[in-house]
Amino acid sequence: MADDTPDLAGPSVARIRAIVLFGGRSAEHDVSRRSAATVIAALDPSRYDVVPVAIDRDGRWHAAEEALALVATGDVPADGLPAGGPVISDGAPSTAVLRTIEGRTTERAGPEGWAATVVIPVLHGPNGEDGTVQGLLEIADVAYVGTGVLGSALAMDKAAAKHMLTAFGIPQARFIAAAEWELDAAMRDRIGETLGYPLFVKPANMGSSVGVSKVDDRAGLDAAVQAALAHDERLVFEETITGREIEIAVLGNESPRASVAGEIVPGADFYDYDDKYANDDAELLIPADLSPEEAADLARLAVDTYRALRCEGLARVDVFFESPGRGFLVNEVNTLPGFTSISMYPRLWKHSGLSYGELVDELVRLAIDRHRRRTRR
């Protein structure tokens, strides 16, 4: 972190204008709304001027000031913050959106009169986690939390990410990536013959296990393909790994560090959407039962994976642990992981000694530092 990045806990620092961007057009819209409520509640009003901006399911951008009142009273609906409020832009982002993002507070404090605007994209899935919003924020020349355009796009596209990790020698499960127009009967037969059954079918560009199916035979493959194609035209097929599901959080820019690891014992056949967000059936073991040597190996693998995909700010690295067998196998990387009260990313850092509020402060610091570093050139 650069030496001139301010200590957000310092009494002389000016308030930071934090634009919390949430909702979105993806299937993970409700997850985003729940995450945003928790993030806003963690932003200290004495140090942050919070500006909630909601994107509804039709792509309209709204000024969502009422979200602040709901968070303050704790009267947040079960599906998260509302996406209503005055319309900033009807459809695609316009100059009105850029004006909202580019606005600066006039309050000044501290020896340098420092003040900043930081966008916190609490968006999951396409049109939020895939580099599209990140590109808009680059055009607006504003600091924002998380990975940049290239890293976001790479990590979001499971097929592209797997090919990139293969090039870096990162261990993974066996997989086949294919587009809709390539999935003829011969290709589907080859997928089963190569990977064996049961296997997993996933949309390439989706998260939170949306559209993911476990397939036991060739007859079930066609239905799983159709379900996944409802979310993306490119799919990833993976072998089933008999092993433990481990997640680890990574935080940082040039010098990333890893948290303790956590293990997931799914309540369903696999760790699906309901396990992640709708119920408490999954058992979460933090820290995971790993030897010191295994934990160190996993931390190194997570950081290597983070760097290979050009991640910055934050990411959660999900792996399988096949023991005996091939050891740790990277499954996927989430550059904007869930931030709800039961989400793994903040829970892993809490067990590593960083509270939720401290974590959000750190992410804001990293965003400011990255923006300053890039704009100095």
Features:
377 residues, globular, 15 strands, five-stranded antiparallel beta sheet, six-stranded mixed beta sheet, 12 helices, alpha+beta
Which spans have pLDDT < 50 for at least 5 consecutive residues? Answer: 104-114
Termini separation comes to 16 Å
Query: Given the C-alpha coordinates, what overall shape results?
Result: globular
* Total number of strands: 15
H and E string: EHEEHEHEHEHHEHEEHEEEHEHEEHH
Helix content: 25-40%
Number of helices: 12
Give me the side-by-side strand order of the main sheet: 4-3-2-1-5-6
Average pLDDT metric: 87
CA-based gyration radius: 21 Å
The biggest beta sheet, please? Answer: 6 strands, mixed
Helix/strand/pairing class, anyone?
Answer: alpha+beta
Share of β-strand residues: 15-25%
Descriptive report:
The chain has 377 residues and is of the alpha+beta class. 34% of the residues lie in helices and 24% in strands. It has helices at 29-42, 66-73, 95-102, 132-139, 149-156, 158-167, 185-195, 218-229, 273-278, 292-308, 344-351, 356-375; strands at residues 16-23, 48-55, 61-63, 87-89, 116-122, 143-144, 175-179, 199-203, 213-215, 234-239, 244-252, 257-265, 283-285, 313-322, 327-334. The strands form three sheets. A six-stranded mixed β-sheet has the order 4-3-2-1-5-6, sandwiched between helices. Helix 1 crosses helix 2 (66-73). The protein starts with 15 loop residues before the first strand and ends with a helix.
